[in-house]
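Recap for those who missed Tuesday's class. We walked through two folding examples back to back. For each one, the amino acid string is listed first and its predicted structure tokens come directly after. Nothing is annotated here on purpose, so try labeling regions yourself before you check the end of the notes.
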Amino acid sequence: MPVAHSTDRSHELTERHRPRRRSVLAALTALTGTAAASALTACSVPAPRRPTPTADPAPGMPIARSRRAQLMQILAHPDDDLYFMNPDTQRLVDSGVPLLCVYVTAGEHDGRNRIPGGRNVPADRPAYSSARHQGLRQAYATMLGLDRFTVWQKGVASLRGDHRAEVNTLAVGNRRVELVFLNLPMHAPRRWESLPSLWHDRALGLHTVVSADSPLHRTVSYDYDQLVDVLVGLMEQYRPTVVQTLDPDPDIQHSDEATRRKNSEQRGYADHADHTAVACFSWAAMLRWVAESAKDGGQLPAFVATAFRGYYNRHWPKNLPAAALTEKAAHLVPYGGDPAWQCGNPSGCGDYNVGGTRPLTNKKGWVRSTHHRYPGARPVVAGEADGRLTAYGVLGLRAVRWRETAPGSGQWGDPDDLGGGPLAPALGSAALPDGRQLLFGLRFAALGGHGGANRREIVVLEQRAAGGEFLAWKGLGHPERDDDRGRRIGVPVAVAAPDGRVHLFVRNADKGLSTRVRGSDGRWDRWRDLGGGETYGTVGTDGIQDGLSAVVDGAGLVHVHAAGRDRVHHWTQDTPGQELTLRPAGAPTAAGETLTAVPAPGGGVELHYRRPAESAVTSVQADGRVLRTGFDGYGALAAAPSPTGPVLLGRDLRGRIRLRDGQRILTRTQGVEPLDSPALHLGASGATAVGMGADAHPWVWRPAPTRA
């Protein structure tokens, strides 16, 4: 959001900060006049809370087959996609993937489209909403390579439950963008934040805002279930293969009240309350879509999900280098527009506080990073005894397995459903000494509004025999003292040590490292905190970002690295079998999930990462020497050891997948557009990259080997 939304009261999406129903009803009772009636409605007897349906987590369900790609992103406000989801969205649009953007709020705020340095403007909520919609049309027209004032087709979409919404469509060649404006209000009278209250309170309903110059002329009403159902209906209609959302579980953030208000964050958490509410509604809708589709023997929808951090970007080192940042910020310029433009919209030509150079000069720095809420390689790749590859990923919020049809074929059979959902997008894995796989997931154990449980847990799936089927899923809980803190944990990362132990790691709510260890007898010990988290007022405990790297060196010692604010945190053992401890010093800081480590030939590990806002790779050798390489790009890195030096996998500055193998740098130039972070596998034929495509299907890239 480009405007600081200072409110009299902030609603956090947590168990312990829910607005009390009596207080909400009291505020509603006090409302008078047509303006209040147009914003909120309340029933004297709330309807009973509708249970959140969940598909049976047992494995073996049929999965729908579709190789067409469709991107759907669900936003709280106009511009959330441009600030938090680019350049990912742009790469998919550039490749021809059709895009559906669903904007839940009208973005009307206080109705003032402020012109920097200009006079104060009168409040006009319908006009400000319309101006922001015009800005989006300008931004996406530019992204499609068209004139920013290209005329869009405006229409009205009929949605579930007799709801209606404005839809804007622009198509050029094989590329198509559709913008759906649900237009729920951002703020209700008396400064109540509407969407967080709608998530929590059964007594609440919201009337939409009718934007100026909209083909809609009447408001419609939404309650909790109706909003979820409308989102489910859009998913069923468009059948997205990629769903992009905001962060449902933002970090805990302790800010004084003045700072919190200035930065538009909910009390106690590092994001805007609307972002969190819309993310929770989005994940609830995905759960309901899967459950409805699987009912009565139906097929699971084949889609992958990605969640993006929001105001988190302000709190951590920036991870986009200059070239990627310039490209990303450029799309906010037509969105911000200018009052002097002749765009044909009487209500305004963009969100004026965002245009010009302001995205880059904004001290909050939201545009300077793109962080995934659930970082990690997807899919997980393993080699089978017969030479084929096996890939494990999350499809339809459930774990699945793909097998290569023949060794080296690069073709995959149909996915096998392993169940276990609903799962976050990235899996962790570890291979036991006998070849059996362990898969780890972050599970949405409960996701309910209206006072329902909201709980996350780590789960594990253990293979019965190498290459064979699996046992039942097992819950490992989480390392936190309550479920609200448990929502803040990161993606599980695991590694198997030579002594038969499996070490499991997660980032915890204090932004430190927690672990749980599986003994060689298969039994799991308790969760333990390994430190590194934020301790306010204590020097040297600055916390870590998610995107952990865990590796075993040649001496059998386990190492974990994580990016902090000013240095890389490093945990390791003194001898095999001991508990890991945090080392007192680390390398210069890394840009989040770009960090990866490999065993060094002479012992210890080599660390590879990109420093904040840099495109080059920094490599820290086992002896402490720091080298810089020209493997320029952005985003996550993967590495694997080889006799000729570490093999690196990442993206170049244009978003293409690149591989550095020895002295060669090779670029993937064909195939489906990749998502997120591909996996790197080294086999007898050399380096292989395996990733997820925009069609929700794995792809394989095998450059010609450099070694016999």
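Example two. Treat it independently of the first, because the proteins are unrelated.
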Amino acid sequence: MNGTELVQFSAATIVALLVIFYGGTLLISARIGKKDENADGYMTAGNKVGFGVSAASMTATWIWASSLYASATSGYTYGISGPIHYGLWGALMILFIYPFGKRIRAVAPKAHTLAEVMFARHGRSSQLMLAGSNLVGSLISLMSNFIAGGVLISLISPFGFAQGVVFIAAGVLLYTLWSGFRASVLTDFVQVVAMLGAVVVIIPAVFFITGFPDAFDGGSGNLTDQQGDFFSSDAFLNQGAPYIAAVLAYAIGNQTIAQRLFAVREDLIKPTFVTATIGYGATVIGVGMFGVLALYLGIDPMDGDVNNIVPQMVASFLPTALVVVFFVMIIGALSSTADSDLSALSSIVMADIYGQNIAGGTRNADPKRMLFIGRATMVVATAAAVAFASMRLSILDLLVFVGALWGALVFPVIASFYWHKVTNKAFTTSVLVALAAFLPVRFGWFPMDGVLAWTVDIASVVGVGVIAGLMAFGFFGLRAARVIGVVAAVVVAPFALGSVHDYAVLSASLVAYAVSTVVCWAMSVNSDEDFDFEVIAQRVGDFDVAADDATPETDPDSPNAPASAKTPASEADASATTPEKENR
């Protein structure tokens, strides 16, 4: 193959492969189906998923087709350091989830969504803000996975892009609709085994067939100086640094991750996320090297669309049998995340929109109606994602944008689980102000010069300190976080001041972190709030309970709320983890 002739499958072959793959996942889903489905099981599988299934599900959810395509795009755009920046920081962010996750589960052991916990912690506005951001984020994620599937099918078959999107959407919806999260997490196990097995075969095969390492020696002239530099500042400032900020926001704000956090057995949180860290990093960096290889070989993406790099490389150089293996790998990767997005979207609508805001809490919610609403949500979300996928936006741009947007939520959410002084007003105001600052910087609504440029640079330096401090806080506590945050800001200041505003994606992300942190802290530090974290577990519980055993009214502002929900207790969280004790 010369890099332009693609392996082509007949329509019948593609249909057969899709029927085998989605038929198999449907059979797995049917075997765990229940005649009378449980609303809590539909959302979190009873909060007791074991290590093997939970680790596989977390790995499969984080390794989505979009991340594989985006890693290759990064390699093609920025050279050899591109996939490293994409895969390494993404892997480390999975690792950073678990210390915060342990605290979240300790505070809300029976929760279904983070937004539901924010309702118990603050009230309706904070809940809907987090739920709304997750609805948008999960819909974009779903859309990008459908795009990945449509691109692949259109490249290697007679079917068009739109037809490919419809095939993938129908297949994922088919096996996820009835059992929800339980179907998602169990099929993830099978999908990740197939996906990782395919990676072990495909990556070495592509490099061998293309003549590695001779291809790297002979193709170096196709690279710019920055693309050929492993320590490229261009790659770090445009890819690495924005992604560090974006994936931390994904880790804290993404419902697909929170759902697995609430589903896994509490004592298995650490090994689950450590295992997923290793699996994600190795796979995504490896596939990302396809983009680097295409760059060295001088291959132009078909139709000028960088989303085509991975399927184009595989279909150009591999024999038919291995293209089939690759097809299964990509379909498994995108399906494992797409079903997670559907489960996340249904849980948010079930628990946050209907359960808390329409029904009025766990005591009043009808589990059967919740199930109907959850399934209807999946159908509507699938239709919307198919419609939006026709726009064929850049997957890498979508991922970075959503992650940066969520950066406005990171500090207020984390602080709400540790600091008893954070108020609903502080949470809501800080997020809105941060978004108001993020959007004009990200999209260049104003000329970036003079006082405005320096303001953005200063805020960006503060944002660096916030991100470094938050990462340190989860593992080492508040004192270490303060020191590391200050040191990080001081170290980057000479390099950032006067220049970082030229990088819109990076500076916008950092501004969102900085503004939300400063505003939330300023509005909370002198507040009279003394929240009792123990009441969260009282306010957030199972929906499938008998009326006489149901949790009392969950709205903290309701006159029917329990007395403990209204009476602050200064030391009620005495058993909290070390970082939280220091914070007090």
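Answers for example two:
Residues 550-584 have pLDDT under 50 and may be disordered.
DSSP finds 25 helices and no strands in the chain.
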